[in-house]
Design a protein that fits this description.
The protein is an alpha+beta fold. The protein has two domains: 73 residues, no CATH class; 138 residues, no CATH class. The chain is 35% helix and 33% strand. It contains six helices and eight strands. The chain has a six-stranded mixed sheet with strand order 1-6-5-4-3-2. Strands 7-8 form a two-stranded antiparallel sheet. Strand 2, helix 4 and strand 3 form a beta-alpha-beta unit. Helix 5 packs across helix 6. The longest helix has 19 residues. The model has no long low-confidence stretch (mean pLDDT 90).
Amino acid sequence: MNLPHSVAEILKNHVTFQLESIDRMYLNVYVPALQYEGGVVRFFRSHRGQPIASSVLMEPMTKSFMAATERFAQEHAVPLIQFEKGQRKDEVMAEQLRHFDHSEGVVFIGKAQEKTPVFRTEKRRNPETGQRYPWIVRSTAMVNHYYWYCVDRDFGPFFLKFCSYFPYTAKLYLNGHEYAKCQLRQAGIPYQALDNGFASCADRERLQAVCEQLARISHQRSA
């Protein structure tokens, strides 16, 4: 009669290849001074020279941002894809990559409406004079986001997600396994890839060193 083995025993007796690596990594891209109400007011008054800070001033900037993004896609023949509700974005990327014949560049730009923090203007009243005035407050809204899906020689596939509404925050997505695969290919080291990892590698020590190098860089940047 065979008794069930513990997970530790199975790993010890059957796992022949282990690797410690960063998997998926998200980096926030933003201007710190524009993440709070006072900073936004200061931006429009001091930087833009507007006597009154109001969300009305944001609309032309947003339209210009969206127009520039879509103009780039048109001028460079980059597919602009409207994501459907519930659609898996990584599957769209996989399909687009099959038709991408460059070593690096923008594969396609995806567009989706998502809920995000924004700044709005509400009317307040001066208790002494009764005069109404605009006031910047934090809120949320459904706005367009642009996903720039790209390929890099050193990092492989990645995407940069831009919010189209002021203050235009972004998120950068990288994959540590894809970075390692790129380094191995450039060094001419054979390996067997999984969908998101490795099944084997001809130089395991070099592969682990590459993964640790990326981890050190990421820790230094976040410190």
